[in-house]
Amino acid sequence: MSVRSRVARHELGLFFVLAFGLSWAIWPLVLLNPDSSPLVPFGPLIAAVIVTALTGGWRGVAALLKQLGHWRVNPVWYAVALVGPFALTALAGAVAVAAGAPSPGLGVYSDWSGILTSLVATALIIGIFEEVGWRGFALPRMQRDHSALSAALVLGMIWAVWHLPELVSDPSERELVPYLLTLLAYSVLITWLYNSTRGNLPIVILFHAAINTAAKFLMPEFEGRYEATAWWCYAALYVLAAVAVIAVSGASRLRTELPRRDRLRAGPVAAK
Questions:
Q1: In angstroms, rounded to a whole number, what is the distance separating the alpha carbons of residues 166 and 164?
Q2: Domain ranges of the chain
């Protein structure tokens, strides 16, 4: 059996091993410098490129990266990807305030330049590095033999474990249980966006960036005993959003069809 055949038989396993190894490699440096990052986001991208190159050559790599150019899709999906996370996060804040937390004020999202800078930086530094691997490479392969929901949940659990260095190095930054539940909800919603747009990575990357940016500006406003309240409200709303998407789009496909205004060529997604 050739090397290519062996890699192809175990491509997902090899991808996950490389993604974790590359991203976790600097974790020991935290022992020397507590201010350093315990996790780097480029692991999934590099792992996907390596495994794809071994199995499909440079033509396969080109096809993988070509997903980044699948941007022509109904504008509704861009609105969902960009506005959705800010709306859900703001609603979570409102629910937390109704539950007794102090109001963070109306100016949380008033720093438009800061929000835009964070959105762009997160999309370029985190979104591309992570999503080409998690959703561009792993998700379509996982959906070949499993339902979209099963693939989303399993990938979400793997994604959560991948964040372990951050969770261990700074446990005070987020509430563990609601954060993990939120990651599973994220994974379901991202899978729905990816499948509904036929493998549109720019939509997924924007959604990922909007999630991080919205939380970055609002969640630190809740401190002390109200932090847990805010995180549970945040997790509950994202879980409810994921449940609604499953109910509407179906667990087997996690896909919603909208009128198309483009000539988007189908990506490699294989939703059942």
A1: 5
A2: 71-249
